[in-house]
Amino acid sequence: MTQYFIRRLLESIPVLVGVSLLVFLLLHLIPGDPAVALLGERATPERIEEVRDQLGLNRPLYEQYFIWIGKALQGDFGETINGRIPVSKELRNRFPATIELAVTALIFAVVLGVPIGIISAIRRNSLIDTVSMFGALFGVSIPIFVLGLLLIFFVGVRLKLLPFIGRLDPDIELEKITGMYVVDSILTGNMKALKNALEHLVMPAFALSTIPLSIIARITRSAMLEVLNQDYIRTARAKGLRSYRVVMTHAFRNAMLPVITIIGLQLGALLSGAVLTETIFSWPGIGKWLFEAISRRDYPIIQATTLLIAVIYVAVNLGVDLLYALIDPRIRYSGAE
Amino acid sequence: MDTVAKPVALRPTFREMSSRRWESAKDFLKRLWRSPSARLGGLLVIITVSLSIAVPLLDDYDAKRDNNLSAKYKPPDCVYQWIAAKFSDTKEDDVAWNDVTCDYPFGTDINGRDIFRRVGHGMSVSLRAGVFSVAIALTVGSTIGLVAGFISGFLDSLLMRIMDIVLAFPSLLLAIALVSIFKEGGLEKGMFAIAVTQIPRYARLARSMSISIRNQEYVTAARSIGTGNGSMLLHHVLPNSLAPLIVQASLGLGTAVIETAALGFLGLGQRPPHPELGKMLAESQVGLASGKWWLMFFPGMTIIMIVLGFNLLGDGLRDVMDPRLKK
After folding, report:
1. Single pTM value for the model
2. Quick one: which of A313, B108, B226, B231 is 20 to 30 A from A253 by CA?
3. Is residue B1 assigned to a domain?
């Protein structure tokens, strides 16, 4: 077991190095002098030289990489080109907002997707099954930004049910502890802020959750169908176990593996989907920040956010693999051979 | 008395071959037709693809000259006008069927441009971009995968590690990062970026097919009569790994269309004033709060229609071509 863990951990190192190299090279793939490209043609020579120095552009490429990655590992991503504030400081402010959004979306997706998948599998080819599977296909086919705009218009503008800009109404005060407003308002016992934060969170989280929700529902259904055909399910039924018990303890536990994998994989979709969702709902997370940075060509921000998301993605996939091995002994034994 | 048996041809004649092919194609289409999702998806794909080909051919559209400020923000007329009048509370709004005009079936935008026309051209652009990026990704990815799987060894490990790195990024994020490098060029760089992010899917799939085919008896047989690597890849490995690749391509087209539109939405695709569905959606945000729903509704529905078509078709194709994947 430990052997498998160590091997899997070591395997992810080259991937992480490759990822960091690619992110590092982004800046150097820009045609021409990156410093000029960042600052524009009208920048003063002094400022250009300053930025060249800040980015370390005067050194050999490999040296630049080691300096950059060394600083990045310590959480130092340099200063933003516009405004010249430390990237890491702003990252700390914005990251909790994205996590709050992504985790809420994932909760929606799992809480709705898994039961839908189970019910569809049990009532195979029924109306419920057909409708939910078409719904799931529709869910993967509707882009986040289309759904987001539809929600804003119907729920926000027409029905005026929910707010659709930002995380909190401007007149509401909240002491920030974690930066996740829902958590903060619970910690400080601020019920007014909690209600407001939740209202702001519902629509963007739902828009973000549709794709993972649909995929989780589809995978749960197919995994359940496979398990429900097994002999031990027939045995359990023949023993006279209640249907609920058969489904939950015998079938679902065995169908859980592919479901867990797919939940892990959805985190990537959630994090990149956050770029679109945050832009539409003016959600001040790292996705919106990345979007703004791209239009201003602020590369330290682009590099920091891209690297952060990719590293999280790799880490989650690694975590899923390890969890998988923990649950299913067959995997770690086949890995040891 | 027994008649002398005719000599049996070892190789089928051309006519036999083509009739056999025709038979299997007919059989394939018949099975495809039986799947409801393939039927609906195929229909949607045929509609969207033929419109995308027809619109630019039939309608000469000059985006740079298209503005008509006197017709700014006109709501849709035509069928919508009639329906809206029927559901209106006040009697004065009621219009007779004959009085319904059909100048702007989808309404107009801030510059008074006809959204119906722009959706038509934008759809063509989005679909073309999607097809190109999938074509690039499919070609490059399956070449990498088939060769890597067939040859194995160092090259295989190297290529697959590179694919792992590309896969370590969420695809849209990598596309955004790649596009942000280039200042010039609109749609092309988006197509290129999306293609890069999709390559690993085809490479991995093709590699797994290639590895399983490598050990088949017919490959050993072909090798024993002296077939070379190149010929083997082209005549044995490629044809036998096509089915899953085609299924993946159909599903990948939906993703590529969404991602093209997403890049357009973020301002990284087609440059204004040229129409593109994602760009149109981004522009529609301005009018949303004041209730101008048509700016967003029609381009949005068009994207959904295209993507749903390819996803349904891909699902149907998978069920028919690769029953092993059907669960």
Report:
1. 0.85
2. A313
3. no
ipTM over 0.90: no
Q: Give chain B's domain count.
A: 2
pLDDT tens, A30-87?
776 777 777 777 778 888 888 777 777 778 888 888 888 898 888 888 888 777 889 9
* Domain-located, residue B187: yes
What would the two tokens of residue A51 be? 């930025």
| Nearest CB neighbour to A272, from listed B170, B179, B268 | B170
Residue of A8, A21, A146 to mutate, testing the B interface (most B Cβ within 10 Å of its Cβ): A146
- Does B98 lie in the same domain as B52? no
The reply to whether B79 and B195 lie within a common domain is no
> How does pLDDT run across B198-232, given as a tens digit for each residue?
999 999 999 988 888 888 888 888 888 888 888 88
| Burial readout B96-121 (b: 16 or more C-beta within 10 A, e: otherwise) | eeeeeeeebbbbbbeebbbbbbbbbb
Give the domains, in start order, of chain A with CATH numbers.
93-285 (1.10.3720.10)
Structure-token pair, residue A59: 């050194």
> B114 by DSSP, 3-state: which?
strand
Domain, as residue range, for B145:
42-73+108-325
Q: Are B279 and B268 contained in the same domain?
A: yes
* A230 touches B at CB < 8 Å: no
Q: Which member of B169, B177, B281 has the closest CB to residue A149?
A: B281
Interface test with B, best of A152, A153, A228, A291 (most B CBs within 10 A): A153
